[in-house]
Every structure is written in C-alpha cells, then in structure tokens.
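Take a specimen:
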Amino acid sequence: MGIIIKTLTLQTPVQGFIGITNQVQYFVNETINTLNIDPAKFEASVTVFCPHTTAAITVNENADPDVQQDFLLALDHAFPYTGEFKHDNSPAHLKSSLIGCSKTLLVHEGQLVLGRMQAVYFCEFDGPRTRTFYVQIQY
C-alpha cells in the first residue's frame, strides 16, 4: 500500500463551481504511469482536499450547468450577505463548512468511479482567488 499526494492550483471566479474531475483523473493516470502498473489492475481511493475556509469540494451533476447556478442561489438564500454578521465574509465560511473541505472517491481499473452525470467540483465562495487543492491517492 502506498500514498502519493499532489498539490494543484486554479484561478477562481467571485463565486462558482469549477470542474476539477479532469485534473484528478490526470493525476491518477500520472500515478499509474509512474508506478508502471497496468491500468486495468489499478484500484485505489482518492481524497480531494481544500485547505481554504471559504471554499469547498463537492460531487454533483455535470450535465446541466443550471444545477450549479441553482445550488449557488440556494446557498445565497440560506447564507445571505447581510450587515448582521460581525465577520465580513461569514456567509462564505458557512457555505464552506456546510459543503465540506474534502471528498473521497474510488478508482476502479484506473478510472474514477463517478455516476454518468457526476463530476468533482471546487466550490469558490469568496473569490476571485488563486486557490490550491490537494489530491491524495492511496493504492
């Protein structure tokens, strides 16, 4: 059993969902190549971790971009930016805590295990920023 970790960066908008499935799968492919393993025999788990308190990681629908916009709208309704908060970007912190800072995914035969309409997203709630996230593969 081994562990490999990679740090990735991205530029984010003011608020939004940024698809990172391809970057995660690319790292899985790099790992398979580095280890010189037959992809059909590569079984692992992948953890995607966000080290920021106003951003998050989620898995959600990738077929209709309206779902992401509706998700953000619902979060804005649940945690609106009002003058009531003592800390200026508390709604972003609340959204981040609700969604969560990490997701664990499965890798089967060298491929991320996701539903037909699922993708991995980096969620930005307080941008624009240069953000980092970590991908850890346990094999």
